[in-house]
Structures are given as structure tokens and as C-alpha cells.
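REQUEST ID: PR-0412
SUBMITTED BY: lab tech R.K.
PRIORITY: routine
TASK: structure prediction, single protein chain
INPUT:
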Amino acid sequence: MTISSIYILDSQGKKLILRDYRGDVDTKSAIATFVQEVVEAPDNADQKPIFHKDDVHYAYIKHNNIYLVAVTRINADATTTISLLYQIVKVFAEYFDHVEEESIRDNFVMVYELLDEMVDFGYPQNTEPVILKEYIVQESQKLQGRQKANAGLTNAITGGRFNETNRVTKTYPRNEIWLDLIEKVNVMISAKGHMLQHEVMGQMRTKAHLNGIPVLFMAFNNKFNFSRETDENSRQISVGNVEGALTNEDFSFHACVDSSKIESERVIRFIPPDGEFNLLQYRLTSKLRPLIWVEPVVQRHDRSRIEYLIKIKAQFKKSAHATDVSVTVPVPADASSPKLACNHGTVKYTPEKDAFEWSIAQLNGGTEILVRAHFALPSISSSEDDTAEKSMKRPISCHFSLPQHTVSGIAVRYINATSAQRSQGDYVMMPWIRYLTEAGEYQFRLS
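STATUS: complete
OUTPUT:
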């Protein structure tokens, strides 16, 4: 079974979540078709959970006020596809109890991480909550019972320590706050070098060890511009020279933030709860320049041998360096007699994965490195040829970490604090700020 994309839509058919695994289905037309065939269909229409239109197969379920839709271009197993959608709902419920539009919006970064773990290049992988909780352990934002404030009230009030019942009486030897701005980059490049998908999933993980009830003020650099547009639910965020309209499902603050001050003062004002929480979450879909570019050249010589030349270009500033870089290149399942050589790092053949893996401990910005690989192929065709061809269709995957760097360019300009009780005078604290960019689904297709 192969799935091209999974969509989560609200009751009106508007996109909440989009996960494109293969890039072979046009998202806009697919969603428009689904809305026309299902959401806007007459009440007395004979609706079926599976239908086909314009060479695309659709399978969907409705849960509370959201639709979960899977699309594919091949004739996939319908029962397995529907079962997967129900299992996704089950997994979401394990993380944030109530699965509905608001909980999806509040936890959209976690939703993307779960979808990436459950489905890999369109193939279902780990779908058991017990196993997933070993990998994705961050705390989710759960709805408190069934009573939820409306959007205006939510933006006007704050949670955390503003509420006396949430105050923590812990004391610390010094006032400290840790801010980790982490961006995960998802990239899909076609065999011809065209960018099919580029998105940045960002979050600011925060840990507060602060005495009393301090009020914190934080401002970002000019790469970060938050303003209201004509549409009530629209926001504009400017990243470098690229501007993209982000709707409120792409951008969210923790409940402790007083969002009424953001637009007027360009400052984020908040009273942090004690311990760890996500202060900020966002998703950017502007096509920025990939940090690491993989250029593959594959030559197949009849049924005798296959040769690879893989080049990596580090397209970030020379003063930065990526760590724990790994590139996994698929090879035919019937390949043998590997001969591998690289000018940087180490390379090894992993027959259990039908691939060879290139590992680089550190990659400096602006450098180019390459690896060569040679494999022998059986001279006689067999019934396993289809399996070998399928293994070749898998994309090259790349993983890396880039410390003290954000692909969006967003950075904290300053953060300071005052005491909520003015009689206590100035509030002294020590902020610790780190930046990190990581590769998520970072893939390059082979011709």
C-alpha cells in the first residue's frame, strides 16, 4: 500500500494539516475535488468513504469536526488505507485526548512529527502509540474538558502563572530561562532537481526556573514581522526576502503569551509557567534555498554493474558547520560486491537496508565532497527483478544538524523581565538562547 498524501481538513474543507509523501498529486486540485465531492455534496447524496476522480483515489473518514483524507494514484488496498486513518486518530487521542479542530491547531508541530513517524514515503511504519511514545516524548497541549474559550478571549487572556492555581512554590538558587529555537526542514527534490516540497517546522522549547511571578518581554530580529491583514484570521510573517501569508493554523503561541501586545508593540509579553513548555510554534512553506544539496549520478551498465557518484554541497555560510551528517542511498536488492570510496567521512554498505550509508561527523559551510560506489549485478534476470526495481525507486535520504543556525533567519533580539509585583524592584535573570536546524524528511529522488 502506498499513500501519496494525507490531509486533515476542518468541517468546511479548509486545510489544517498537509503531509505530502511522494509529490505526485497536486494538493490544491485534490482538496478542491474532495470539497466538491464530499463537503459540499447534498445531504441526501450517496457518499462513500472511497471514490476515484481524475486518476486519483480518495479514502477518508470524519471524526468530530475534521476530515482525515488519504490520496494516492495507485490502486492501493482500500481496507488498509481506511484502517490507517482510524489508527492515526487513535494515536492522536493518546497524545492530546480530544481529536478535533482546535486540538489539531494547538499541536500541529506534533501532528506533523507523528505523521512522519507513522508513514515513510507513503508506506505505513510505526502506528502503535506505545512505540511512538518512545520517539516523540514532548508534551502536548490538551483541551481542558469540553469547555473552551472563544478565539477572542483566548487571545486576550493568558494561562500559566497568571492563574493563581497554577503557581508553583519551587525556589531556585538563581533565576534562569532556557530558550531553544529549533527548526526542522522537510525537503523533497525531484530527479530533475526541481523542488517539489519545502517546509520549515519551527518551535521554541522553553524551560523556566524563575522565582516569583516575573513578566518577560521578548523581541525578535527584523526577519520576524507579525501583523494583522484584512482577514481576521490572517497573519503576515516576513522571513528574509521571502514573504508568505500564514494562517492561524501555521502560527501559534503558548497560552501564557499576551497576544494583544504583539501587533502594537512588536514585543512578546508573557508570564511563563514553571518548567518546560513550547512558547512558539510555526510552519513556513516558502521555498528557501536547501541547506545541503545532494547531486546523484547513477549509471547502470546492462545487467553487469551499477555505479554511483554522489556529491554533497554545503549551501550555508562558511563560518557554520553541520554535524552528524548521514546520506542513505538505495541500491538494487540483488546488488553485490560493493566497492566504496569517499574523500570525506566514512561509507559502508548495509545489505539489510539495500543501501549504502555515508556518514560525515562535521561538514563545513561552502564545501563540496563526494562518494563513489560500484556494485555488481547478476547477469541473469530473475523473478526478483521487480523487487530490485522498487528498491531503486526509493529516494536518497539525508539527515543532519546545524547548531546555532535557523534556516528562516529568525533570532531573538533581546529578552528581559520585570516583577509582577512592583514593590520588589528590578528582576534579575539569566537567559540562555540556542538555535538548531535539523533535517526532517529530507529526500532527493533518483531518476
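NOTES: The radius of gyration is 24 Å.
REVIEWED BY: pending
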